[in-house]
Design goal:
By secondary structure, the chain is an all-alpha fold. The protein is built from 12 helices and 2 strands; from the N terminus they run αββααααααααααα.
Amino acid sequence: MEKTLKRWFPIFVAPTLAAFCVGFIWPFLHGLYLSFCQFTTVDNAKFTGVSNYVKALTDTSFIDSFWFTVAFVIVATLIINVTAFAIALALTKELKGTNVFRTVFFMPNLIGGIVLGYIWQTLFNAVLMKLGEPLLALNTQAGYWGLIILLCWQQIGYMMIIYVAGLQNVPPDLMEAASIDGATSWQTLLKVKLPMVMPSITICLFLTITNAFKLFDQNLSLTAGDPGHTTEMMALNIYYTFYARAGAAWKGIGQAKAVIFFILVVIIGLTQLRATRSKEVQQ
């Protein structure tokens, strides 16, 4: 049986591997090469060395978008995971209608980011107008918190499902032992539930951080970076550099920004995975 599997293994793997190479590996490598070039189309690229990276790293708009993105990711990650975990705790108790609540909380994740952005833009502008405040596109603080609220509303339900699964896998014996030992609800949460749910926390933190860093469609539809690019996140800054600025030089700079962005997200994601996995408890 094992010999048969080894014999037919390449045949079953080949189509997926070929699609992965054509759809990801080759475009990524070609994009990496283009980040060292000036070009208007991929067929007329001219190699220019690291000048694109120098210009990208000295572009103040790119640096500002980085710090705005970092501030956004930190706050969004904390709110999403704390809220999702709290809701998961409530929904894993023996209460009526928990399945209905799980469905309701998860539904926003099914709506596309562009659609969500325009829906919340209408809601926020209506509220701000009633309060006598400037529209969303004219208020940096409103734009920042608008993005936070939008992403939280979309992502909390998805993370909640993961936390619910983790909490349901906590061995009942441990909970019973904690109860016999006289542990309070708070002590049980900190000493039993959290350590046992660390795999779920690892997954949720990774998804939240990477999704927040890569946020593009909601940013484009909700604020479009206004006012004056002050609510522009890194993905949107790359988009504007590549498509909104004319000339071969800007194409290469935009490509260099994309590579820097990719490396940054990979480093942060892997660092977070390593940090949280080291705290996981083997069951």
